[in-house]
Write a structure and sequence with these properties.
Layout (H helix, E strand, L loop, with lengths): L7 H9 L4 E3 L20 H18 L4 H12 L3 H6 L8 H16 L5 E3 L5 H10 L5 E6 L2 H8 L11 H22 L4 E6 H6 L1 H12 L4 H8 L4 E2 L14 E2 L13 H9 L9
Parallel strand pairs: 1-2, 3-4
Antiparallel strand pairs: 5-6
Helix pairs in contact: 2-5, 6-8, 7-8, 10-11
Length: about 280
Amino acid sequence: MGAGRSGTTLLDIMLGNNPEILSAGELNRFPRNNGIPAFHEARKDASEFWNSISRKLNEQFGSINFEQLTRESYNHEYHIAFLSFFFKMKPSISKYYSEFIINFWKTIFNSINQEIVIDSSKYPMRGIVLSELLPYDIAFIYLKRNPIMVCRSFAKKDVGQPRLNWIKCNVYLLIVNLVCKLVYRKLNKKHTTMILHYESLIENPVQALKNISEKLNIDLKQSIEIVQNSKPLKTGLLFDGNRMIAKPEIVLRENETGIEKMNFLDHITLFIQSFWWKKDN
């Protein structure tokens, strides 16, 4: 979980390059996209896999009501849901929505050989929903990135995702990380959790993967070997994510995570976001 442009898709792919792990991408978008994966025309394997999941779910539900599921997903999983949740006024989850979530995950596990599935949906309130509904052992990674770099990323025009100006980006980061911190504390009481910085993942990916492997008690030897030998990472069957999943493989390259020169707005950003970034960095 974490804010957009913080590297969740990249982390998902890196973890998914191990034989016991399925890199599934942003699964919260399944209802909104009517079960059709992103870039489906260019990703035959992913399209076939998720089409088979949709067919199996249709057999169970007769016909999936994507509109209702999208609406309930927004009410229970998006950031605004934390207000009602933490003030003990959360709306009850419908039987249809609960059954869909449970059967959706059951169908995925029954369709694969892997023992672990990565969901990089990001929304922390989705973590609450999955924690309450699913019978599985769930671990959570709270991924953080320097807020200056996140705002600069949101300002770009060529990333295929909505842009945010400086003001909207800072408001967004404040809200998302406030929710993340509150949800993280709650989930930490009964689940394995960890905080990971995007900068650590990029500057020393081998050590970052080793830390994840140790903390979550999962085998990441293959990913570590791929990164050590500068080999391509397969993007696999991700349902949705950023534009990098349109390619069958990506190469992890050195990325400039530092900031050569800060302007006035950068300093203001660090001040505004200091409650979640400064202490941890």
